[in-house]
Each structure stands twice: as C-alpha cells, then as structure tokens.
Amino acid sequence: MSAVFEVEFEQPVGEACNTRHAWARVPAEPSRAERDVLKDRIRRLLAERNAVMVSHYYVHPDLQDLAEETGGLVGDSLEMARFGRDHPARTLVVSGVRFMGETAKILSPGKRVLMPDLGADCSLDLGCPIDEFSAFCDAHPDRTVLVYANTSAAVKARADWVVTSSCALDVVSALKAEGHKILWAPDRHLGDYIRRETGADIVSWQGACIVHDEFKALELQLLKEQHPDAKVLVHPESAADVIALADAVGSTSAILQAAQRMDASTFIVATDNGMLHKLRTLNPGKTFIEAPTAGNGATCKSCAHCPWMAMNGLVNVAHALETGAGEIQVEPQLGARARVPIDRMLAFTAALKKGEPTGALVSGMGAV
Fold it and tell me: How confident is the model at residue 223 (pLDDT cuts 50, 70, 90)?
C-alpha cells in the first residue's frame, strides 16, 4: 500500500458531538501513469469479482469517473442505497464513508460490501453513539424518531424513520400532518432547517458535520459582493445564517439540479468541494466557487472537504477488490431492525416520485 498522510481537525464543541478519537489517512496522489494502471486493474477486478462501484459525490474525481465508466453510480446516499439494492452484482464497492457501506449491507445482506478504508468515518455518526442516543430517545417517549442516514446501523435500528437531506422535508411534513412530534438526530443545523421550513415540533440531537459547520456567513456575504451575479447553493447541514444567504438550499442531488436549472453563469457552493467535479462536468460553461471556511470562529480543519471522504483512493479500491480487505459486516438481527426504517423511507420516496399518496405510510404510526 502507498504511503499515507495524516489529516488533523479540531474536535467540535459540545458533549453530544465527541470526535476526539477520530482521524483520517489520505492516500498519496498517484502519478498519471500509475493512475492509468490502477484504473485498468480495477476495471479487470470488477469484471472478475462480479462487482460494481458506487461512489459519493464527495470522493476523489477518479473514483466518481471510474464508477460511471464501469456501469456503477455516482450519487448521494439515498441513490447509492437504492442502486446497490437493485443491481445484480454480488459485490458492491462503496467509495464514501462507513455509514454508506453499512447501509448498503443492510439493504443487501446477501452481498459482499467492500470499502476502500474501513476507517472512513463521519463526524455525525461518531458524534451520535448508540448508548447516549438511546437514552435521549427514552427521555422523549412520545416522539417519532427520525435519524439522518449519516448514522450507525445501531442508531438506525433505534429509529422509526431514516431520512436523507433529499427527503427529510417531505417526510417531516407528512408526519406533522398526522400530528407527530419529532425527535431528530444527529445534525442540529439540518434539524433546525427542517423545523423552520415545516413548523414541526422537533427536539434535536446536537451533532454537526465538520465540513458544513465551517462555512461562515460574513465571509460568504463578502464573497457575494465580489460576485454580484453569482447564485449561492447551500447544503442544509450549514448554519442558519449561511442558509439565509442561499438562492437554493438542498441535498447534493438538489444542488446539481439547481446549477443546471438556474439562469446564472457563476455559482458559490457551500458544500463539500468534492461536488465541484460533477458540477463542472455537467455545466462546462459555468463557474463554480467554493464558499469560504475562513473568518471569525473558523478552524478551517476541514477546509470544505471531508477528511474521511479523502481516504478513498484508487490504490485502496484495487486492494479491497484484490484481497477482500475492507469488508463491511453488520450483525444480521441488527441489520434486519435497521432495514425497517430505511425501507419505510424508500417506500415513501418511491410513492412520492410516482405521485402516489403517502399518508398510509405515516398514518397511526407511533414512536418506537
């Protein structure tokens, strides 16, 4: 394996988001010649192992391009989950962070799920340990429990619903219409955004994404003044004052759609800068600028890119396929429990996409 570099970041503030022991290893960047050899090797191994790649928008461009070139998928966590479940391949290679691999295994328990590096974690997942979260749920027994996809299999198994940023507003709106009070975890910014948009009664776990938590409103406003014609695209895991400056707020997929749809040639993007590759590929005549992570209160430890997403590289994808390293394991009974709220989300989003009524999916459902 190649040499790795250590990436440090500051522990987020707050007892409920303890990432003190988290760390990341970023693979050394291969040369152009090494890159070509590795890509050919991965293509061959995918065919030999009856495997398919799914890559998140935040991972290295090489892994995004290779997934699409070999019949796989580049997408957000919901799209990755559905694709892995429905694809006939017996092995899934998940380039992303650990909860994505766990979700793939939960939905495809009979398949082998490999990750380039099992240490690729997520501050939201790390900041929501199951024991503390269970106690939080027990303290609010009258509430319907919604958890973000960025959580462990154990936390998902404790929930009524699993949601992503692309469907959370719709699910919460439907639950509110049926009189549900919500317990939300783990991202406080996304929970507050959903509360503001829906008016739902929400109590929220106090976690945060170390990337989106770094975007700063004052510096974003100054950047807007330098580019007065630019539209601002913001992920809802960002703070409220950053969201207030947005022309469009949404998931990674929604940001892509907004960039293609909106009548502008320049965009300021407040999400992980791994998104810029796909944004620029789909919009070759447009300019995309990273939102600032500097300024008052900033640590710039993430600098608009998740250190764990950066752990995914061509070398460790090839190594995983060749040796079976990085295999995700989820205890079957836990996986079966975690699958219930995930399937509920997938059924809801499928009905929504088809224009079918969703009320039956939320009507009369009590808290866990």
Answer: very high
